[in-house]
Amino acid sequence: MNKRMDLDCDVLVVGAGPAGIAACVAAAESGARVILIDDNPLPGGQIWRAAIGDPANPKSQNNEAASWLRRLQASGATQFLSTRVVARLGAKLVLAENESSSIEIAFRHAILATGARELLLPFPGWTLPNVFAPGGLQALVKSGLPVQGKRVVIAGTGPLLLAVAAFLKSKGARIEGIYDQAAWRQIIPFAITLIKRPALLVSALAYRASLLTSPLRYGWWPVSATGEDAVRSVTLTNGKRTKTIACDMFACGFHLIPNTELQSAFGCRLVDGNALVDELQRTSVNEAFSVGESAGVGGLDLALVEGQIAGFTAAGKDSNARPLFRKRRALRKISAAMDRTFEPRPELRNLVQEDTIVCRCEDVPWVSLRRYHSMRHARIYTRCGMGPCQGRVCGAALNFLTGWETGATRPPIYPVRLSTLIREPQISPKEKP
Amino acid sequence: MPNLVKMTIDGAEVNVQAGATVAAAILITRSGFRRSVQGELRGPVCGMGICFECRATVDGQPQLRTCQRLCENGMVVNTDE
User: How large is the ipTM?
Assistant: First the structure.
């Protein structure tokens, strides 16, 4: 039932968020033959995910999205959506699969724009249904989940919390409170750095203004969530006092961490969890670039600039990339300030109890893990990180809790159909028929 | 009026907006999707194909991440088996 496809291109772009789209457009408009792959059904990534049933939104960001998406469609790049790269087969060859096909793609350059995910930290009750990552809940609501009248508590850290709260409120949710673990003394200097980026400051204030009836607290973090078949209440603390709030949904996430499994499968060097890149966004592996959040979480504007730099360079037009360096430098300053502001506080390491599940796929509790000294040992003896998510959730949590390095991702980097793997070995790139 | 898609989730017929993901459609009917290896009820978390908690069987294909699958007319979805 698995169709086999063999393709080749000049530039393979993995990830159709803003960074990937910008890379794709820059490369294709420079004359390169480009293939763009993304595992979602539509391009746009998380930040440009369209909400179904919404009329065209006049906000500037969405105009920006619409304009990039138009350029993408006009660029002539070949798009494979609902398609996932699962392994690197050779220096310039990857294996991908979708619902119907197994696809080998040969390329000259690969631009990895794999985005970020939310950092989830374990606390008692975090595995209950209706406990979501904040961006995850937003994505589900944009994809058709109604929240009219639902009581939602939002906690964790990062600029996403306010944005998600404002979005959910616009969809009729009752926001029972927004609790960011970052202290005011961290938030104020961050707000001052935003004066140089007034658009961000204005949107933060607009979000806050739309939420005036909901409490917004800094220096508060979650302790536990309770409920039988779904969350019913959450308990939060500021280190001195605690409070318990009844809710139907709890959205909790601790800012973003880059998705670097593919970079790791390529053998790219990672530093502090980010793919290490040079001024042209090239990784330590000759033919691979890394752009956007995967090269350091920095948000939409930085992703667009980095994507273009890599796209131009991969198409042999690095003279077009160089004028973008200055803009990138300024944007990276903001992202460094963001990392400092929203760094998870040490108290969050004390939330896990003995019986708190850390590895959700294999149900491994904290008590079984803490006797080990590395992710590798924990994996061998407890199956921690060996379930379908391949340690994407617990690996990052354990890195925060214990300092363990996750280690290189083994291929295939996603669970894959056997029929995708069973095919003639193919080592050298092939010409298109 | 939004277009509706008719599908079957755990034996019950449901109508959802065209363009909805299967995960959103299941969440309208129930919060818990699957049982963990120790039998705990679990539902979707990340909404973007990372956490694998939203796995379900769609048209006979097991273990699909329903947050990345769009609803289609006549689709048959089963959560925990």
Answer: 0.97
